[in-house]
Amino acid sequence: MASRGRWPAGAGLGPPEQPEPEAACACPRVSRFCPHCGRGVEPAFRFCPACGGRLPPPPREDETEQKAPAPPRQQAQSPAASPRASCARPSGTARPSSRSPRKARPGPAVPLPAETVLADQGSRRWRLVRLLEQGGSGLMYEAQSASGTCPQKQRYSLKLDVKDGKIYNEQNFFQRAAKASTVEKWKKWRSVPLLGIPNCVGFGLHADSYRFLVFCDLGRTLQSVLNDGLYLLKEKAAFQIIVRLLDCLEYIHENEYVHGDITAENVYLNPADLTQVTLAGYCFAFRYCPGGKHVAQREGSRTPHEGTVEFISLDSHKGAGPSRRSDLESLGYCLLKWLCGFLPWSDELDKVETVMEKKEKYKGDVRCLLRLCFRQRSIPDALQSYLQQVMALEYEEKPNYEALRQLFRKPLEKMKASAYDPVDIKMVP
User: Fold this and answer.
1) Superfamily name with CATH number, domain 117-216
2) Locations of Low complexity compositional bias (predicted)?
3) Which of 261, 315, 327, 424 is catalytic?
4) Is the domain defined by 220-414 classed in CATH 1.20.140.10?
């Protein structure tokens, strides 16, 4: 493979956004408490790092002189039961705020019947064939062209969600950082034979209630393949997929974004062509480097525990904007789960604080984490080296993607295989 040159930051993107100004922290510090769960929080936090609730603005200095804030009565805390903690909120009423009322979080999309026709912004029409997946990030359909501009028998994947849901963030990602022409330029620049960034061929609104994205056929999610009874991946298949996903992450990171939700539900394999490995699901994509300037690490500045709780990074747990190391940490958890079938916190996903504490514990003791997961089985050297290198990254540090890929390429070479060969996995259409 040819040497990998530097890809200009922001190439092919729209006008840069300005980084969000850092919240000012008053001195001396004012004690604050979450109105939802009663936990103490830092003055500059906008979200509670324990329960995820939005915090009211800190009291003005003249108010604190008249009356010191008293902690609210402790309430029983009930973390989100769903693996996607962002889809649930603890009950409770926030104190009055001078800010505008918060817009209600949209509910889940109601499935549309088969044969429904949707028209995108380019006036092309798409017919829903069947519902493939239904989850916290929307509905995925098999679709066909109904406008005569595409071959009738060609299959497409159509993602549908409520108009103001996270799919709006995903649409912005594709318009800004993943245009087909930008992806092709990258492949030529880096001499990458295959790059699993979805090709978004259309988007639009339907009935003023739904937003949708249309992709070339993505195939099946890796999670659905595992659910067929496979449960675990062989090292060869897992290493092939990891190298391909590292290619994808390097691309999106160099285009100012991080994925924010690496999971088997967002990795797609095509049964008709197992050389295709696609990283989809950009609902939680975050622009970590707008205009080439890395955002500051500020815990509590975003909704904590956002994404799939089992695999999200510690940064996401703590309400800091995910960075490049966050995606690589999540990818490491995924690889461990695919090879072993479980993680030390897999049975406690309804206790988000416990999950976070365990990830914090094992981040400093990777060897202990691996022994716990592999038990009497031998631990792959590539996986141990990967986790140790990723866990040691600083928040703003740029990873050495090529070195990480080489960790898995070497054992693949011993197996006389390449990451770009058909993935060594048996699956049905």
Assistant:
1) Phosphorylase Kinase; domain 1 (3.30.200.20)
2) 73-99
3) 261
4) no
